Amino acid sequence: MALLTAPAFAADVDATKKKDEPAPLKSLWDDTTITGWVDGGATPNFNNPYNGLNYGRLFDDRAGTPMFNQAGIVMQRPLDPKATGYDFGYKFVGLIGADVRYSHYTGELDYAMHDRTQITPLEAFAIMHLPWVSAFSEGGIDLKIGQFVTPLGTELITSPDNIFYSHTYLFNFGPFQHTGVLATDHFTSWLDVFAGITTGENTGLGWSGDNQNSPSLLVGMTATLLDGKLVMNAATHAGPENPKQLDPYLVGWPGGVIGGTPVACGCNPTDTWRFLNNFNVTYKATDKLTLILDSAYYHDNGWNTQSVSGLNPGGLALLNGLTGINTGLIPVRSAGVSAYGATGYITYQWTDVIKLSGRVEIFRDNNNFFVAGYPGYFDEVNNVHGFAAPSTIFAGPQNAGTTYFSLTAGAQITPELPKNDWIKNIILRPEVRYDTTLNGAQPFFTSLNGPAAYYTTIGGYSPWLGGGRKSNQVTIGMDVVVPFTLK
Q1: Residues 155-172: what's their mean pLDDT?
Q2: By C-alpha distance, which of 90, 292, 84 is closest to 186?
Q3: Number of folded domains in the chain?
Q4: Which InterPro entries match (predicted)?
């Protein structure tokens, strides 16, 4: 009997020892993943714009020109969603490509590459889970420190994470990323509340990254309902976003000021606030059908300068003609600029390989301030630095406005590749898109003969011979995304 039971008893003791021994601790490297992607595409425009610009678009702004949009590398150790104690993670995303022209942190590598292709660190942050459970925190708090993409909106900078190749006006002319500290309180099992302090909209640290050196606030909440089928997000970013204007009229004034007042925005940039508000809802109606609503309201207390005399630009011109008074010397005040809109998406997973998608958007740029075209490689960067960028194009003067309407139909085709360790599939995203205006404005370029007026940051209309403008444009586009895994 002893011969039969002894081995079993010994095995039980050994199993108990193994069960009681703590599992070996994993290093951060053990849980680190390294992934990436390469993305390129083209967007022909039936208007055949004389300057090759798809107006109102950023990442696909070159009409008919093949684009190396972006290549990204992601190294991260995400937090364990089941962690009950302290947990630590991090994320780094590096990006190179033409899309980076619009996704720099101000002051970081923004003039490093003098070409359409540019480079940036898109995200670089540490994140810690703090198991501080209380009446105000059922699931503890996550603390993020560093540089991270904005929680406002549904579309993202990173190509593989979007439904379409082209982007909405809401995305293109809203915030992209922030530098700062963000705390997320897991208030209940279905509600997260977050708040933080940032250096601003798409800004870095220090004078080169935020030359008015004023902090901004970032607050919001996420509600997850119906067993995860319904997700609602609301967020606000608010603070001074206008840089100190550095010689915006190319006349050599130190600091670009007269009497201490920046001449471009007509405001004091250290206390003139911009409010960026977003609310979006995602509803997974079935396993195959998803509906999304994304909405936003943007407002800046500066710009849209008006004469303190109460006369509009036409009245000032008349006064100048009748009296010879230099009306440019009459002080101005900021009347503020705003924009708002909404986008609806529908996606249907038709087969394992093909997802069909539709998108409709209406966007009102009340003062022709937010929507713009950037022909030069550094136009957008120069604007956010406060440098002169005279080639930047706007639809018209700030005392007018444009209402944009767009329809997009497309698909995501994800064929699997022969089995290998690095690349499992590719993503093809063909689309057709129609843009127009609902108020008769003509912001889109054509190949028609004759003068084409455009509004510049210099402060007036300037003629370009050889082209024209119209109220609509039709584009077709497609990009190819190749995701890969290294670790």
Answers
A1: 97
A2: 84
A3: 1
A4: BBP2
The phi and psi torsions of 38 (rounded to 5 degrees) equal -130, 140
Q: What is the mean predicted confidence (pLDDT) over 346-368?
A: 97
- Whole-angstrom Cα Rg for the chain: 26
* Contact assessment for residue 65 and residue 164, using Cβ atoms and an 8 Å cutoff: no
Q: Of 383, 264, 401, 394, nearest to 332 (Cα)?
A: 264
In a domain, 452, yes or no: yes
90 within 8 A of 76, measured Cβ to Cβ? yes
Residue positions counted in the chain = 487
Tokens 């993670």 identify what position? 89
Provide the domain limits for residue 386: 31-301+336-485
Strands 337-349 vs 33-42: parallel, antiparallel or unpaired: unpaired
Say if residue 143's pLDDT is above 50.
yes
Cα distance between residue 481 and residue 36, in whole Å: 10
Q: Is residue 13 part of a domain?
A: no
Domain membership of residue 219 (yes or no) is: yes
The predicted model scores a pTM of: 0.87
Amino acid (one-letter) located at 359: R
Does residue 271 sit within a domain?
A: yes
Count the alpha carbons within 13 Å of 435 in the hemisphere toward its beta carbon: 26
CB atoms within 10 A of CB 190: 16
Give the CATH number, domain containing residue 275: 2.40.160.10
Say if CB 190 and CB 224 are below 8 A apart: yes
